[in-house]
C-alpha cells in the first residue's frame, strides 16, 4: 500500500515532526497490512469485544488527537514519541483480525498472539525506536508487568477513555 493511502487515512501522521519517525509510522501500517493481507482497512472495527461501530482508524485518530492535546498541555512528555505511539498502538490488530466472508473475525494468529505483542514486532521491524514499540507493547494489560514510560501511561489512558466511552454507548 502506498504512503498516500496511510497519510489520507491517518492525517495525524503529520503531527510527527521527525521525518524518519513519521516514515517509520507509515511503514508500520504498511507492514501490518501486508502481513494481515489487507487490501483496505477503513472498515476494520477497533474492537471485536463490543457492538461499537467505531473503526480502528477512527479509534487510532481519536487516541492520537487526545495524546497531542495532552502533549501540548504538559512539558514533561516527548511529543513525537507520544504521537507516534498513539498512531501505531493498535497496528497489531491487523494481524489479530482477518476478513471472513462479509465480516471481520479474530484470525488464527490472533487466537495465539494479542495485538500488543504482534504490534511490538511490527513496530521494531518498521524501524520505530524502542520507546515507541514499548508504548505498543505496554498500552494494554500486557503493560502491567513492566514500568510504563510516561508516554505509555498517556496512551494507555487515552485508549481506555475511547474504549470505555464506545462501550457505554
Ligand atoms: Fe487502542
Structure classification: mainly alpha
Give the CATH level 1 class.
Answer: Mainly Alpha
User: How much strand?
Assistant: under 5%
Sequence of secondary-structure elements: HHHHHEEHHHH
Please name the CATH architecture.
Orthogonal Bundle
What's the short version?
With 169 residues, the chain is mainly α. It is 59% helix and 5% strand. The protein has one domain: Hypothetical protein af1432 (Orthogonal Bundle), CATH 1.10.3210.
Structural commentary:
This protein is mainly α and 169 residues long. It has one domain: Hypothetical protein af1432, CATH 1.10.3210. The protein is built from 9 helices and 2 strands, in the order αααααββαααα. It has helices spanning 3-9, 19-35, 56-73, 79-88, 93-96, 108-112, 115-125, 130-138, 150-168; strands at residues 97-100, 103-106. A two-stranded antiparallel sheet has the order 1-2. The chain starts with a helix and ends with a helix. The mean pLDDT is 95. Bound molecules: fe (ii) ion. Fe (ii) ion binds next to helix 3. The site of fe (ii) ion (FE2) has 5 residues, from helix 3.
